[in-house]
């Protein structure tokens, strides 16, 4: 039996198990920042991962980010399939990634699930961590794949707030390269999350890819940045997060955002 999720709630649990209880087409859009598989080391030197600092001054060795190669692909197919089922037809699906996962995400959306891909946004971090190994270029970007929840031939009428995007880009057409600094300490007042996204970045996605009052899902909520952004911009939201410690940070950030304080 399926049950409609209650908007504006944080659900603690595994997103696959939670979404499987929901009916088809029950949310308008999804903005997802899934595990990137960095802690697994991307197939290098066993499964312990590199332990390098990722997008913040925190090392990425969390158990929720550790998968074998096959497990990672199956996991990505499973959660993206569920997202495509619960998002309404032609709703927006925006997914974060780096070279560790983004090719898989794009392949699954385009080839396995036959979704239309509209753009890939590059988030450039001008203050990214230096590279301590000196063996490769310094990673200073993440990508966001923007897909529409229908096939390339049938997709139509998706939400893109073109004029809002133009306003945010000082009157010029918005490009797909966004320069936004890493999450500032002021947004970590209630605790640290190793992959927390800056509010400015998530708020921009919310503004251009959803309309006021619509329901936006984040199945990997972390410290709840999507909900804070959605609250601030008059959208409804739904968070799923498996780790209690992050659910607690998200709750505190939301309470602060609602009372006009730090977020
Ligand atoms: C990349 S982080 C998201 C960070 C978030 N965007 C923010 O700004 O704080 C991914 C989150 O997904 C959670 N997670 C991992 N696997 C999960 C699953 N199967 N179901 C729900 N949450 C999961 C992790 O605990 C982690 O907090």
How are the SSEs placed, and which strands pair?
Blueprint: E1 9-12, H1 15-19, E2 29-32, H2 69-86, E3 92-97, H3 102-112, E4 116-124, E5 141-148, H4 162-168, E6 177-179, H5 199-209, E7 215-218, H6 225-232, E8 236-241, H7 244-258
Parallel strand pairs: 1-8, 2-3, 2-7, 4-6, 7-8
Antiparallel strand pairs: 3-5, 4-5
Residues 14-15, 33, 35, 64, 193, 195-197, 220, 222-223, 225, 240-243, 246 line the site of S-adenosylmethionine.
Describe the protein in words.
It is built from seven helices and eight strands, in the order βαβαβαββαβαβαβα. By secondary structure, it is an alpha/beta fold. It has one domain: 3-Layer(aba) Sandwich (Rossmann fold). The protein starts with 8 loop residues before the first strand and ends in a 5-residue tail after the last helix. The structure holds S-adenosylmethionine (SAM). The site of S-adenosylmethionine has 18 residues, from strand 8.
Rounded mean pLDDT score = 92
Question: CATH fold name, please?
Answer: Rossmann fold
CATH architecture: 3-Layer(aba) Sandwich
* Ligand roster: S-adenosylmethionine
CATH superfamily: Vaccinia Virus protein VP39
Round the Cα radius of gyration to an integer and report it.
18 Å
Shape label = globular
- Describe the largest sheet: 8 strands, mixed
CATH class group: Alpha Beta
């Amino acid at each position: 039996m399926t049950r409609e999720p209650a908007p504006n709630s944080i659900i603690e649990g595994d997103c696959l198990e939670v979404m499987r209880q929901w009916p088809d087409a029950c949310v308008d859009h999804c903005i997802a920042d899934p595990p990137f598989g960095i802690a697994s080391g991307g197939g290098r030197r066993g499964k312990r991962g590199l332990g390098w600092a990722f997008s913040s001054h925190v090392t990425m060795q969390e158990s929720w980010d550790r998968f074998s190669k096959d497990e990672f692909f199956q996991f990505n197919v499973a959660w993206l399939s569920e997202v495509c089922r619960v998002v309404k037809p032609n709703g927006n699906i925006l997914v974060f990634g780096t070279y560790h996962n983004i090719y898989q995400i794009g392949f699954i959306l385009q080839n396995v699930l036959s979704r239309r891909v509209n753009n890939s946004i590059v988030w450039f971090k001008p203050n990214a961590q230096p590279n301590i190994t000196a063996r490769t270029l310094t990673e200073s970007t993440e990508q966001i794949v923007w897909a529409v929840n229908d096939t390339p031939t049938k997709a139509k009428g998706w939400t893109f707030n073109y004029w809002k995007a133009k306003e945010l880009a000082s009157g010029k057409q918005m490009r797909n390269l966004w320069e936004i600094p890493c999450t500032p300490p002021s947004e970590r007042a209630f605790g640290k999350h190793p992959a927390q996204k800056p509010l400015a970045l998530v708020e921009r996605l919310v503004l251009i890819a959803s309309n006021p009052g619509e329901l936006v899902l984040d199945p990997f909520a972390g410290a709840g940045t999507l909900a804070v952004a959605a609250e601030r911009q008059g959208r409804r939201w739904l968070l799923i997060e498996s780790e209690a410690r992050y659910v607690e940070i998200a709750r505190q950030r939301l309470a602060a955002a609602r009372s006009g304080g730090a977020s």
